[in-house]
Amino acid sequence: MKVRITIDHALKKYDGNTVIPDLSLVVEEGELFTLLGPSGCGKTTLLRMIAGFNSVEGGKFLFNDKEINNLSPSKRNIGMVFQNYAIFPHMSVKENVMFGLKNRKLPQDEIEKTTAKFLRLMQIEQFKDRMPDKLSGGQQQRVALARALAISPDVLLMDEPLSNLDAKLRIEMRKVIKDIQREVGITTVYVTHDQEEAMAISDRIAVMNGGVIQQIGSPRELYQRPQNLFVATFIGHTNIVKAKLAGNNILFDGYKLVLDNLKDVPDQEVQVSIRPEEFIINEDTSSEGMDAVVEDYVFLGLTTQYFVRLADGDAVEIIRESIVGKDLAVGQHVKLQVKTEKINVYDASEAAMTLIRKE
Amino acid sequence: MRIDGFRKDKAVWTLISVLIFIFFFMFIVYPIFSILKSSIYENGAFTLENFRRFFGESYYSSTLINSLKIAVVVALCSLALGIPLAYFNTMYVLKGSTAIQIITILCSMSAPFVGAYSWILMFGRSGAITKFLSDVFGFKMPNIYGFAGIVIVMTTKLFPLVYLYVCGAIKNIDNSLLEASESMGVVGVKRFWKITFQLCVPSVLAVTMMVFIRALADYGTPALIGEGYRTFSVEIYKQYMGEGGNSHGFASAISVVAIAITAVFFFAQRYFANKHSFKMNALHPIQKKKAKGFYNVFIHVVSYALVAFSFLPQVYLVYCSFRKTTPSGQSFIEGYSLNNYRLFFARMGESVWNTLLLGGFTLIVTISIAVLISYLIVRLPSKLNNTIDTLSMLPYVIPGSVVGIALVISYSTRPLVLTGTFIIMVIAISIRRMPYTIRSSVATLQQIPITVEEAAESLGTTRGRTFLRITIPMMSNGIISGAILSWITILTELSTSIILYSSNTITLTLATYNFVSRGNYGCAAASASILTFFTALSLVLFFRISKTKDLSM
Question: Which residues of chain B are within 8 Å of residue A133 when distances are taken between CB atoms?
Fold first, then answer.
């Protein structure tokens, strides 16, 4: 059964402290939906509320049209993958995968068949009689996933499943997870604090901070059109440059841009988010652009990273494809231009909401 | 320079290994060998007569069956009581859980026969509660002497061990395992059986073995409350002490049988434990939940009743110690006084001093050797050191009275006569305590990363200096908590010291036992209370230093 998860005005309190004040979202059928945010933002708490391990202090949680607020986790038909995998250490790989099926009192041959299917799917058949302490982290991860999926759950919940793996395995496993999720077509909620992992794996991402959703969108939307400054700085890397808005002009110190996608707002002070790759460095100091001095640079192979100081004293970071031959010199004066269609403009308030129109 | 220092260092550690090996050879291997020899070699000739007599005459062989019956039943009862209590107190919020924890530990720490004695005072033929029930309600108390009495007394003392071990195991379970099970629909009793209990199996096996061995080897309890129900530990003592003809050979034969049986169970346990071994570490320990409604009442009542029932004997003894007695101390009369204490100090006051002295020395010997051995095993494994490791575990399977007899047989003749001395008591008890202390030292040392020691060595310190300046200070917390536990066990030790003591080396526990067996109940209550006081004081110290409420032995 395909399930849509609806969360309607969820409220979570721990001992009188509100952790999630008022949160609503919808996870569509068959979608891989990620909760992303810094630690302590409430993402795991929310996942555990969906699973039923955390109580719900207010609002409604629905699987399709069925309210599950007071349903015990064992009745929700969920598959859960834990941060530390939670493989039963006293059972072999196969017994772990069979565990949930056995509890359903299915005929023995069906249990065997389903177990074999998921062992094969996760490519852990050859380890099926091993005990968990004889498995590597990646293999344990596969067992955890096979076990969660074997009971054909309506919803798959994953709590930072890759955080205990090394960098290389993490990249390998996130592809495995994404492929399996697509193949099974199960509605999945995935929690991580790693934005690159979230981008690589998700259909849609909810960026959370302080128990509040900052933005929900596809990885592309989040990166290219962050709705506020928190999202802009949390997803990827960016430079904030102060400027003035006048009509559809953005006025920097000695540099003027014309944007055609601005909201209709009064003239004001603004903050402009320019990602390192959105700058254009011009060595010709007589050309148009912001005045800047190169302070240092790091050659990274494919790209070179420059640390540059603007005339008003702000430091910015720029990345561009490495060039062959003589590079910029430390102390050299340059002019900076920006790729107009890519930058984002925010108001100067604390919330720092975007001033770019929805396309 | 560096090379020379290194060589010298190595030589020192080798010397230590050799010295420890000699010590163990003299006081473990040789005594076992002596007892074996004494059992099959009499009047200069080989004989199996002793074994034939033991197995051939049901008067003797039945003691073995009786002991086994007791050990099995006590182990089962202890599991049946200890596991639920541990489950309740780790999974649910119990009011007064700290008190439950501390009282259970205190119960497990008391000298075993003290419980038996108190039970006799309360429920025995002329016990206070027996009389009360028959006077007021005309109710006749069932007979508590014999099998039932032994089982009850031992169980109330030994189930706390099960409780402590299982608590430790449950605390090691990561909460996500239970959640994973729940997410797959397995909850409640089913989850307890399939997950929680299974994860405790290694600990359960270990503690079952421990309970079994202690119940099998206990001397004081069956001696006091067993009456006609004869166990082999009592029989060994009787044969050795020469009731009906002094027979070292026969006592040795029974001892050999006892060692053989314990060893069989020990290896069986090892075998199952290895099959059931797995690693666990709890990143998110289980959070206690509030139980609801009737179940909440139920778990509270059960826990309180169990703890109260086990603690009752000690409380009653303290109460009795302040009661007036007849001049002989045989029975209690109306009124309260400190007379029991006055009499105790007048007659046996030196036993308090002896106990402290013996305990102190034994502790120093046990800990020094155990720390050195743990270092040798963990950091410098070699054939010799592995042999020492194995030898050090032998006393675990040898009943206390057998250790005593073996040492007496080995060291009562020249060239080395130790019987009746203070030294033999120290050696005997430290040998008995060695397996436990070494295991806990090894565990402590294994948690210290070797890189810390390597860092010290890279800065130019020799291995010996590193050991003294880095390793021991880092182990000190573990060592001290282990020491206090050993201290308590030494305080309440009876079965070995009763064979080895002389009038100069009588301890508090022995004094209590003597008062009980001579029927001076007033003084016995007083000395038992002093013993309880020392135990409780040591426990408070333990909790202060180790800063936990947990404890494993």
Answer: 278-279
